[in-house]
Amino acid sequence: MREPLKDRVRLEHILTAIDNIFQYTEGKTIQQFNDDTAPSARSTLRPRGRMSC
Q1: Pairwise CA distance, residues 32 & 26, whole Å
Q2: What is the C-alpha separation between 3 and 5, in angstroms, rounded?
Q3: Helix (H) or strand (E) holding 41
Q4: Which of 1, 6, 11, 20 is the most exposed place for a label (fewest CB within 10 A)?
Q5: Which of 48, 11, 45 is nearest to 30 (CA)?
Q6: pTM of this prediction?
Q7: Could you give phi then psi for residue 27, rounded to 5 degrees?
Q8: Are 42 and 34 spatial neighbours (Cβ–Cβ below 8 Å)?
Q9: In whole angstroms, what is the distance from residue 41 CA to residue 5 CA?
């Protein structure tokens, strides 16, 4: 870690983002999450794994 202050700020930002995700998704099923997600964002939320042709 060359610049500890910048690293700390970056990590705090990541933790805040993770906390926001947990708050937004708490108690929701995958279907409810998909229904609440904007169509433009949904295209990036594909399951990982084998791609079909």
Answers
A1: 11
A2: 6
A3: helix 39-42
A4: 1
A5: 45
A6: 0.54
A7: 80, 5
A8: yes
A9: 32
Place of tokens 């947990």: 22
CA dist 20 and 12 (Å) reads: 12
Tell me the Ramachandran region of residue 9: left when phi exceeds 0, alpha when psi lies from -120 to 50, beta otherwise: alpha
Cα dist. 49→5, 11, 35, 41, 43 in Å? Answer: 37, 28, 22, 19, 15
**What would the two tokens of residue 12 be?**
């705090």
Spatial separation of the C-alpha atoms in residues 32 and 34, rounded to whole Å: 5
- Name the residue with tokens 């990982």: 48
